[in-house]
Design goal:
GO terms for molecular function: hydrolase activity. With 208 residues, the protein is of the alpha/beta class. It is built from five helices and eleven strands. The structure holds D-malate.
Length: 208
Amino acid sequence: MSDDAGLDRPHVFLPAEPSAAGPPLLLLHGTGGDERDLLPLRGLLSPGAAVLSVRGSVLENGMPRFFRRLREGVFDEDDLRRRADALAAFVETAGAAYGVDPGALVAVGFSNGANIASALLLRRPGLLRGAVLLSAMVPFAEPPAVDLAGTSVVVSNGRRDPMIPAALTATLVGQLRERGADVVELPHPGGHQIDPGVLPQVRELLGA
Ligand code: MLT
């Protein structure tokens, strides 16, 4: 994965503005998106904060993703492990280049981006400060026994999400809590989407 070795991987970096109060964000888009998709979340979640937004390096029928899947909801876990490690390396390289401590970053991922964000937490505990997982599934059937104490996670899934039954959300939340993560659930009434109604609460949690 040589595209991940330097700063060549497509991404956007926005430096912090003097008024920034909240944490810097690592933005991770959903399937078919790119590094520009989630930029509006900066103003809604952590106004003026530094932002690193990265494009997934896998193409599925022309649609960028962060890792391969065998079919909808069934992940290629070997590929997910490799891609999560490559993304972690990119975050470290970009953090050093742009002067942002990865340990201060909160990953904000939607759908496929949420799933690679969970994989990052589980593969590289301590790399990031935490994560906001929007429409998130279970990245690993049997995640590694890591210590996520001190890692804050928000999980916001839709009660009407046809791809994510409540039991799947419960499994994800359980896996993270069993490993010591501080998990807040913010369910919303919608489907597989980012519900704008929960964003003020997420912002409050990030600022706390
Ligand atoms: C997606 O369409 O991106 C799925 O919901 C999640 C995934 O494949 O990671």
